[in-house]
Each structure stands twice: as structure tokens, then as C-alpha cells.
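WARN no homologs supplied; continuing
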Amino acid sequence: MHLLNRNSIRCYLLTASLAALLGLPASLLAQTLSDTPWTEYFGSSSGPHIGWGRTSRVQNNKTRQVRKILQRGDDIVLGDVLGLGSAENEAAVAQFMNSIEADGGQSFKQQVLDRAMTFNQTQIDVGATDQVLYWQFGNEITSVKYTLNLRSWAGQPVQPAKPSDPFVIPYYAEYYLAPAVQAIREAEIVTGIDNLVLLGSIGNASSPPRREFLNELLNYELVGTYAGEFAGLRVADIIDLIDIHYLIAKDTHVENARGRPIRHLQGSYELALNEIFDPWVDTGIVGGLFSTEEVGRKAATGGYGASKAMVVAARFLHWWGANGLSSDQARSLLFGTNLGPSDISADLAMQTLLSFLGAVPLVEIPDAIVPPANDWEGYLFESVDDNNKRVGFIIPSWSDIENGTFTSFEIDAAGWPGRISAEVIVYGVGASSNSNASVNRQNNVLTITVPTPITAQKGRPPSIVILLQRN
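OK structure emitted
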């Protein structure tokens, strides 16, 4: 594994004795604390972010744009880097594959080397050598376009075309990924700057066949056709990080023993993430797991960007904390932050969290929110810098929840005395609402009551954010 050269963040687990020593409530036991602000884990995959993230993904890879983002202080994900990219154009795919065969990949490797040297020199010029360039080779390599266009070039039957086609794997790995990584490593030797490689994104990773494709790809043993030094290594051995798209906020499925999807299984998104994390990241074979697209164009333009963004934030903050992941190992980039109505955009929702919490570390208070029904999830986080502030999320477990209406919900506040105020924000489809809720405390349980009933519509459920302030 190519070792990460970022400053690792210190994570530790509170034991009962340590909690008692520090005077912390029992509800904080067995929770992972990080000294890194939550904003370090997020970024934008399209459009701007102001303060709530520190990673930008760019597509055109122009030196001027890279310089500007570095000067802003962001890390950069370089998407669609030369070569196959998204493999959307049949003629372009054929031209690339033929050029690799024509000169053994030398021209392509020189292109990547030149680009890496230029960008690394830009880092040096602007004093940004502590920031990281992540090189994403391939975008949604599980797409039907990869299947169609690579099969067409190879003279193989293209119908019925299917996504996540294992036929793609050796061509992607030998012709595209391995030569590119070889060039990246050469640039590192010359400049002394680490360039981290993301395994070209796995689209719609909520689907079990996409994750099976990823596992097969990571296990693929390279022949070294156009990068001889990698012969005998697995794809997993030459990359730094795995990159997925659209797992965390979808109706994610895992399969039963018969290979059939299990629907409406609570926590299925965690099981799906663990399918990737456990064998590859937790073992130290691969350095981390990024998701460089969540929310998406369709949700954003359909007026659902804010709601989706809160599902992404709540679930990832929970899962990252549960696994003790640093921001070197885990990031989530939101796609479509600048799309759709501005008053219910993903950007606005993330800005609201930032305005209330600030860029601070968070700790999760486990099992503190009682969801209004079985098909909802609750998450509660506290600012490590200011324990008078907590933010809660009540989000739908899946899109086809039962229709319902509710006006109140309960939050465990054991170990958190004092007068509490609550602002409740409901992000629905095409609309949002803010209200100052009434708070009643009884036996260390807060009952939060909103003045207007919250309606959950099947197929279009809202996400609810509770901003709790102790006075």
C-alpha cells in the first residue's frame, strides 16, 4: 500500500473509567472522539462550498483552476484525468485503447507525468505542499458506457449490455489504471510530493452487483502489460483509496444467503459500507474509503438537495465515528450543491450546520433520539468545543416509508442539565420550514414539540434537523 503522508488525526475510545475521571455522562461511553473538525470530512463535487468542506473535485483539470483552489486551502480530487475518463464516447475510447497498444502506453504515461509535475510545481509555487491532490482515474467505471464502448473496441458482443461487467476489469486495470499510477509514482520521486490515487469511482454503490465488481477489481492480479513493475500485484496494492458514489443516501440493499436483496433492513447502509471497509480498509490493504458523489443532480434539481444532504451528513458522521476514521481515510463530496432552488439546496443545509456548530470536532451521543416510527433513524452529535450545542437528525430509513404525521419526538438528555431551546428545520421536497419548538424535560428526557405537524409522504419523506442550545 502506498502510505498516506497526511497528518493523521488522533482518535480514541472513551472507557468507563476515563469517562468517570473526566466527569462525562455515561451516554458518551464507547464513542470515538476526533480532534478534527467535522468540516474536514466534507467537500463539493460540483459547485462551491464556503467553509463547510475542505475538498473540491474538478473535472477540467486546468492549472489555473487548480492554483485557485489550492490558494483557497482545499485539497483537490482531480476527476476524469485523461485517458478513459467516463468512457462516454465510443470513438474516444477506441482512440485511447489503440494509442496504448501502438506505443506501449508511453504517450499516455508522459501525459500523466507532465500533468502531475505541473500540478505539483503549482503546489510548490503557492506554498500548498501540505494539501493533497487525489487522482481519480475513471469515473463510474461500473457504467453501461464502459461495457458498451470497451466491448465494441474489442470486437466483442455488446448486447445485452450490463453495468458492472467483469469484462471491463482487465482493460481498465492494464491499459488505463496501471500506466497512470506508474506515471504518478514517477512524479512523486521527482517532486517529493505525494499524489494519492483514487480507484476510479464505483457508481451506484448501493447495489450489491456494483460492490461485487469492486471486490473483483481490487483482487485482480496485474499482468503488467503496460506497467511491468506492477506485474503480480493486485489492483488493491497500487492504489491509495477506494472511491464510491451514491451508497449512503439511497435505498441500499444487502443480499441474503440466496443472493436476493433484503429490503427494509435497518442499518443496511452500514452493512454495505462494511462490505467494502472490512476486507480492504480495516485490514490496512487500502488507505481509506471516499465517496466523491452524494446527493446528485436529480435530487438537487428536484428540490430534494437539502434533505438528501442531511441524510448523507448524519449517516456518514455516525459511520465514520463508529469506525474511528480520520479525514485522511474518509471524505464525502456532495454533487449538485449549486443546483436546484437555493432555499432548499444541499449547500444551504450544510451552511446551516456550520452556522450553528462552527467548524468543530463532534462526538456522537448514541441512541439518544427516539425516532417517531420504525422506518426512521435518529442521530445526535455534540460539539467537542462547546458542549452546550447539540445537533440532531431524524431521517427516513428508506424512500417508501409509510405515510404519517407527527408533532413531537423524544431525546435522551441524561448528563446534560440546564434550560434547553430547540430550533427544528424540516427539509422536504421543494420546501423547507423552520420553527422554534417547545421543550419539556421530564426524567432526563426532552420532549420536542413543533407548532405545525410534520407530514411524511411515501416516496418523498423529509429530513429533520434539530438544533439544541443549552442556556
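The CA atoms of residues 134 and 419 lie 46 Å apart.
OK
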